[in-house]
Design brief:
The protein is α+β, with helices and mostly antiparallel strands and 235 residues long. The chain is built from 5 helices and 13 strands. Helix 3 runs antiparallel to helix 4.
């Protein structure tokens, strides 16, 4: 009780600072007291990011401050400024892609899979063919699924009669929406798997994450085409 009272008195005593070699530190945590800096403006599209660079950025004088564009990842781009007196860069604006994405590794019913495949992927010939295959399987009764690690062979039946066998290639190249919609979406390979009962379908990424590098390159190319001569782009 006494300890808590003492801590409360210290808390209410107000902030205390101390100067060491010309720098000001907070007394209790020994943290430097940093000067004010602008809040980061957050947007969700590259279009909003570029609009700032072309219009509002002129008012903020960002070009005269040695600012540059930093492509942090396939889903984040920021405009950074030079170091301040404490070695901290100002982050003027940040674009973060927050759109819905397909959950790879999750198992879906044929109906769920078809809905997500039509809304979260570009409709390439490969995707249209896969949707057709899955749609046909959804209307049949799956008897067996043979998996040799290379292909999956599905035996379907109607009632007691075996209708036939369907071979499903394990690797398929698809184009999911995974980065900013203004840029070209990267193609990559996926492993498709079915399991009983249901059947249930899942897609697994099979490119070792190489698509992220392709997405970053795509963002950089898009930005270069609009503001490349005005700002240095770091990826």
């Amino acid at each position: 009780m006494i300890k808590e009272a003492i801590e409360k008195i210290i808390e209410l005593s107000g902030p205390e600072t101390i100067d060491v070699d010309g720098r000001t530190y907070a007394y209790r945590k020994w943290e430097p007291v940093k000067g004010p800096k602008p809040d980061t403006l957050n947007v969700k599209t590259l279009t909003g990011f570029v609009d700032y660079l072309k219009d509002i950025g002129e008012l903020d004088g960002i070009k005269d401050l040695g600012s540059f564009i930093h492509i942090e990842s396939y889903k984040a781009v920021s405009l950074r400024g030079p170091f301040d007196n404490y070695g901290v860069r100002v982050n003027y604006i940040r674009a973060i892609h927050t759109g819905p994405v397909f959950q790879f590794g999750n198992w879906y019913s044929p109906e769920e899979f078809i809905i997500l495949a039509q809304s979260l992927f570009e409709q390439s010939d490969a995707m249209r063919g896969l949707i057709k295959q899955i749609g046909n399987l959804a209307e049949q009764d799956i008897k067996t699924i043979e998996d040799d690690g290379v292909t999956q062979e599905i035996t379907v039946k109607t009632g007691v009669a075996v209708v036939g066998q369907v071979q499903l290639n394990p690797i398929i190249e698809l184009i999911p929406y995974r980065t900013f919609l203004e840029v070209t979406q990267p193609k990559s390979d996926f492993l498709i798997r079915l399991r009983k009962p249901g059947p249930q379908i899942a897609l697994f990424e099979a490119d070792g994450g190489a698509w992220e590098l392709l997405a970053i390159q795509s963002i950089g190319k898009w930005l270069e085409g609009i503001v490349g001569e005005e700002f240095k782009i770091i990826a």
